[in-house]
Amino acid sequence: MSTNEKLTVHLAVYDTLADWEVGFVTAHINNGLWHQVPGRFTMQTVSAGLEPIATMGGMRVLPDSAIADLKPENSAMLILPGNDIWPTEAYAPYVEKAREFLDAGVPVAAICGATGALAMAGLLDDREHTSNAAAFLDGLGYKGGELYKEEAAVTDRDLITAGANAPVEFARAIFARLEVYKQPVLDSLYKLYGDQDPAGFYELMSA
After folding, report:
1. pTM of the prediction?
2. Taking CA atoms, which of 16, 71, 173, 197 is between 20 and 30 Å from 48?
3. Where would one find the signal peptide in this protein (predicted)?
4. Residue ranges of domains in the chain
5. At what angle do helices 167-178 and 183-193 cross, to 10 degrees?
6. What class has domain 7-181?
């Protein structure tokens, strides 16, 4: 990954998207503060259609483009937030795009219900992963139970997974995989937001 390359991170948006699970990710990738290479990353939203979607928090989001048109070679990562539509056919386009990304060696990050959708599609059968709880995935009849980890966020090759109660850990894993920050900055960010230690703030101010 060239440090001079302009990279686009794609966020899937759909009705009932769980706002709080990706807010930390989107804000910190988009604003460029403390980035290892300022201006390197940009965020875009993708959806099954181009009409506005309504998040779980009631915000309306107008997608930038259709997920069907998204090519792995034009993306640095696909992020799949939690939602209430993951067990339905409405979520099929996002699962198939995740499969396409993983087959192409481009990272996918899924949290909460999105991990359930990937489990149902067999995408967690051969990768270490986590989710809301082991029982949550076991109830879906998937075959990856032996690879489940009782951790806030797990990275295995090109797949990042996390549970609904771990938005900061999810963000940290994404930042690490994309090399958004140098390690000391990433550690300070987690100290502030994950450990809720004010020392992280002062470390960032001096970065």
Report:
1. 0.96
2. 173
3. none
4. 7-181
5. 170
6. alpha beta
